[in-house]
Amino acid sequence: MGRLKVGVLISGRGSNMAALAEACAAPDFPAEIALVLSDIPGAGGLATACGRGLATAMVDRKAYGSKAEFEAAMDAALRAAGVELICLAGFMRVLSADFVGRWHDRILNIHPSLLPAFPGLDTHARALAAGVKLAGCTVHIVRPVVDDGPILVQAAVPVLDGDDAASLAARILVEEHRCYPLALRWVAEGRVRIENGRVRIDGVDAAAGALRNPL
Ligand code: GRF
User: Fold this and answer.
1) What is the pLDDT along the chain (215 residues), one digit of tens a residue?
2) Residue 140 designated active-site
3) Cα(1) to centroid of ligand 1, in Å?
4) What pTM, to 2 d.p., does this model score?
5) Ligand 1 pocket mutation, candidates 10, 22, 123, 173, criterion most atoms within 8 A of CB
6) How far, in Å, CA of 82 to CA of 6, rounded?
7) How many whole angstroms from 177 Cα to the centroid of ligand 1?
8) Cβ(78)–Cβ(35) under 8 Å?
9) In ligand 1, which atom is closest to the CA atom of 18?
10) Of the candidates 112, 106, 176, the residue with the CA atom closest to the CA atom of residue 141
């Protein structure tokens, strides 16, 4: 069977895109990146993708009169590249229900919180303000509501005394770069089943222990 063709949507530095590309560079990885698409002309991730020899596209929202036209242009670029699965990786636009419906169960997203806590923007600052002791990241299947949808994998990290949003974000980002390739592998291997809105991953065991903070 061929490798699953992935389109990665970015708006910024693209470190998660790079983590996915690194995973896909292994010959036995079951997915490959067919296109890196940015909605922002100067996105740092575009240069990173070019440097890795990946195909890139720029679909500038400002070049289109409506969201529907913008999304149609993205859709066309993705389909022209043969994309079968979309990975949102710091893509800062909300996709319409229409677009999400056309790619039903074929869009993944990564968010730097333990969803359903702290969806949306300023995630790390809100987690700190709430005083949570554990923070983390979530890879999920995209539904029309922002940062909602069946959860594939989560990783938790401790919140430390003296953390600010930047230090917490950096600790979580390390886990993001581990979680996203794992989730992509399981999807590409066809192990993922969605039952009543919950994900089951065939042949993958639950983590054995608890993470507690403070001890
Ligand atoms: C990540 O924290 C991701 O979880 C969030 O936006 C950030 C993007 O970072 N959705 P990068 O562009 O992948 O470096």
Assistant:
1) 699 999 999 999 999 999 999 999 999 999 999 999 999 999 999 999 999 999 999 999 999 999 999 999 999 999 999 999 999 999 999 999 999 999 999 999 999 999 999 999 999 999 999 999 999 999 999 999 999 999 999 999 999 999 999 999 999 999 999 999 999 999 999 999 999 999 999 999 999 999 999 98
2) no
3) 31
4) 0.97
5) 173
6) 8
7) 10
8) yes
9) 13
10) 106
